[in-house]
Amino acid sequence: MTKKAKIVLLAGGLLFGGALLPSHTPAHARTVHFTPDTNSAVVSGTVEGTEMIPFRLALREGQRLDVQCHSRKKGIFFVVKDPTGAVIYKSAESPQPDRWTGQASAPGRYTLAVYQQHPATRKGQTAFFRLHLTVAEASAAGFLP
Q1: pTM beyond 0.90, yes or no
Q2: Overall number of domains in the chain
Q3: What distance, in Å, lies between the first and last C-alpha atoms of the chain?
Q4: In whole angstroms, what is the distance from residue 51 CA to residue 123 CA?
Q5: How far apart are CA 113 and CA 32, in angstroms?
Q6: What CATH number has the domain bearing residue 105?
Q7: 125 to each of 22, 57, 128, how far by Cα in Å?
Q8: Is 17 inside a domain boundary?
Q9: At a CB cut-off of 8 Å and minimum separation 6, what does 5 contact?
Q10: Phi, psi (degrees; rounded to nearest 5) at 20
Q11: Is 57 helix (H, G, I), strand (E, B) or coil?
């Protein structure tokens, strides 16, 4: 077998073998719906390795959003993004990384994304989480984020 044929076989094997490996696909955002009689919801899931699990919910301007994140493992955090995609809160930078309360500054779809940030992340380990979300109208006295 010639050197050129060996290289072609090797390259083809690498391409074919790479196609068999599972590829990492980003998680699809799940939309959080509130039933007409309630203003809260509980969503849960499992985060693996470095992935982020996004949840979207529609808010009207002035509505207050309360988030509580529960997990048995340490290093589970979340971010909150406004409708433009700008990050308005990072729980990893907060003294209370498992909860947040904020007010919608504009109407639209807000995103909460849960992720891991600890050594287990690099090993691809999983962690279960549960988010308790409550939406309420802003009080007449006002609310500061």
Answers
A1: no
A2: 1
A3: 71
A4: 12
A5: 12
A6: 2.60.120.380
A7: 16, 28, 10
A8: no
A9: none
A10: -80, -20
A11: strand
Three-class DSSP category at 129: strand
CA 106, 38, 116, 52 dihedral sign is negative
Q: How far apart are CA 70 and CA 44, in angstroms?
A: 9
Which tokens sit at 99? Answer: 């909860």
For every residue of 75-118, DSSP letters joined together read: -EEEEEE-TTS-EEEEGGGSSSTTEEEEE-SSSEEEEEEEEE-S
The string of pLDDT tens digits covering residues 22-32 is 344 456 678 88
- 20 or 64, higher pLDDT: 64
Confidence band for 4, pLDDT divided at 50, 70 and 90:
low
Does residue 99 fall inside a structural domain?
yes
Q: Residue 105 carries which side chain, given as an amino acid letter? A: S
* Paired tokens of 96: 């209370």
d(CA 20, CA 12) in angstroms, rounded, equals 13
Residue 6: predicted pLDDT: 53
